[in-house]
Design a protein that fits this description.
With 316 residues, the protein is of the alpha/beta class. The chain contains 13 helices and nine strands. The protein has helices spanning 21-32, 52-66, 81-91, 110-118, 155-158, 175-180, 192-201, 228-242, 248-264, 268-283, 286-292, 297-305, 307-314, and strands at residues 11-17, 39-45, 71-74, 96-101, 104-106, 124-135, 141-145, 172-174, 205-218. Strands 1, 2, 3, 4, 5, 6, 7, 8 and 9 form a nine-stranded mixed β-sheet that branches. A hairpin with a 5-residue loop joins strand 6 (124-135) and strand 7 (141-145). It is globular, with a radius of gyration of 21 Å. Mean pLDDT is 85; it is low at 1-6 and 286-297.
Amino acid sequence: MKVESKNKPTVSVIVTTYRRPHFIRNSITCLLKQTQEDLEIIVVDDNGSNTKDQIKTFCEIEELIDKGVIDYHKLNTNSGACFARNYGAKLAHAKYIAFFDDDDEWDVTKLEKQYHVIKSDQNLGFVYCFQEAIDYKTGRVFFGTYDGIGKGNVYNELLKIDKRSLATPNPLIRKSAFEKIGGFDEQLKSAQDIDLFIRIAKRYKVDYVPEVLHKAIIHPSERISSKHENKVSGYTRFLKKYEQDLNLETLRYIHSRIIYHSYFINDFSSAKSSIRFLKYRNLFSVKYYLYALGLRNRFFKFLLSIGIEIRRLLKK
């Protein structure tokens, strides 16, 4: 619960919310069940002041605000997840911070177990745990990470962005490490989480709790990961930041994803740039077809429609 200023909290949890007022109360309830003592819960409402969603969100948690259970802050305008998280982190009083999305779930022991690990070593930048992505209706597990990325110096492992990559609500982070690397990159439209962890891992050691303590809920409501324009923008900026350090397999993966998401927003220029990298022999490799598996037939028509352009580029 919220801690009075005279009693410094052990962990500050920053909850950001946008267009999901129906989720926010359950999120706070989940946090209040944590076994870690002296939590500070900071809610950053990114809906924009006096918008319909902001008013609904406030109504959902007004009682908790009045009781001092949470520290509530509303942003005047919708400023994006990265800005909202950085804003909340600046308000945190604890040495350790965690970010909680309003549509995720934590095991009740998550923070306590991570706290015991991170407080034991001043060189740790964050402590992560295993995670699963589950369907919001059925509870079916879409995928999970059960082997982690190791511990100690994990910079190179984190550069391999795939389904093993950590999500924002997963680690418990040392606040001083978060501040030293400048927090979230507010220019990134996607991949903000892995970008943050990479920059921390470049300076600090990392450890983990080998248990599934974090569950990401997959649902039809608005998510950053569902916006194709954000994916193209995020992957493109990510490449500019880390291209020299990425291995060939990861580069192929990122470029293939750019082509995939570019199609849905008719961004042919971004697709062409990635085609230049992949070239003919990689673009039509078996693995690339696997990336496209499950797409509607019109995506393959899109690939065929740019065949002439591919040949032209390969001849340059």
